[in-house]
């Protein structure tokens, strides 16, 4: 990492911001209005309630436990196979 990496990153960010501003100015008024409406819809999206978050988290934990159970079962079957077949 050199001394100029931070400056290069700053310059790149400034060029990108200038490019985005130029693109925004080149848009037609209808396109600009549609883009603003899309951004407002994204920002005003309703948040999940406690119950919805709880159920989503519970589903993710249960999926992880199912996958872990499958791996544990596979390890158990392999050990059973190894001790009963290979070590006869």
Brief description of this entry?
84% of the residues lie in helices and 0% in strands.
Descriptive report:
The longest helix has 37 residues, at 50-86. The chain starts with a helix and ends with a helix. The model has no long low-confidence stretch (mean pLDDT 85). The chain is mainly α. It has helices at residues 5-26, 29-43, 50-86. It contains three helices and no strands.
What is the SS-derived class? mainly alpha
* Number of distinct helices: 3
Number of strands: 0
Tell me the fraction of residues in β-strands, as a range: under 5%
Unreliable parts? none
Helix content: over 70%
CA radius of gyration is: 28 Å
Mean pLDDT: 85
Termini gap = 59 Å
How many strands, which pairing sense, and closed or not: the largest β-sheet? none
Shape label: elongated
Q: Could you spell the SSE succession in H and E letters? A: HHH
Tags for this model:
88 residues, mainly alpha, 3 helices, 84% helix
Summarize the helices and strands and which ones pair or pack:
Elements: H1 5-26, H2 29-43, H3 50-86
